[in-house]
Amino acid sequence: MVVSNDLQSSRTVYTDRTYVFKNPIPSHLYKQTYIRTAQADKDTTTPASFLSFDVNQNVVVWVGIDQRITTLPSWLKSWTKSSQQLKTTDPGSAMRILYSKKFVKGKVTLGSNRDSSMPKGNSMYTVVILPDVTRVENWNIYAGISADPKDRHVSLLRE
pTM for this one? Predict the structure, then answer.
């Protein structure tokens, strides 16, 4: 589920849990667009194109992963680790370590929360999308409604 321009304290982290984000939210992520993932997907290992979305301009995608994960999933290893974190009320692990990567206009594809060789039980990642521009732009989110709950494809388009 796409949440447009609203990442802030007390906003829900997952589609299937009531856990929320807590302050401090890193300033560059505050009130940005994020994708509510499902905690139930935390142990999924396939497919390689687990979550995808379209953007109509260059973006920086931030992924917050469970602090307990010591070995990154293979798709995340080329991303840049940040010293900043996202905090949540998730009782399993409240802290998310942030990684970022720039993407050009088009389709962005992210992998599953874990590779098959990784331990189970860590919390699902969070996705935050920022325009890769020098000034703030207005984003419109177009999320296709699908009868299939496994459909994880959305479109992010800037006016």
Answer: 0.83
Tokens representing 143? 């999320």
φ and ψ of 33, to 5 deg:
-75, 135
Residues 16, 39, 131, 56, Cα dihedral to 10°: -80
Q: What is the pLDDT of residues 14-60, one digit of tens each?
A: 999 999 999 999 999 999 999 999 999 999 888 778 899 999 889 99
Q: How many helices (H) and strands (E) does the chain have?
A: 0, 11
Tokens of 85: 């974190």
- Count of domains forming the chain: 1
Instruction: Quote the distance between the C-alpha of residue 145 and its chain's center.
Output: 19
Among 140, 130, 134, 141, CA closest to 31: 130
∠ CA(159), CA(148), CA(107), 5° rounding? 40
Question: In the chain, at which residue ranges do the beta strands (DSSP E only) sit?
Answer: 2-3, 21-22, 33-35, 51-55, 59-66, 80-88, 95-103, 106-110, 126-131, 139-142, 153-158
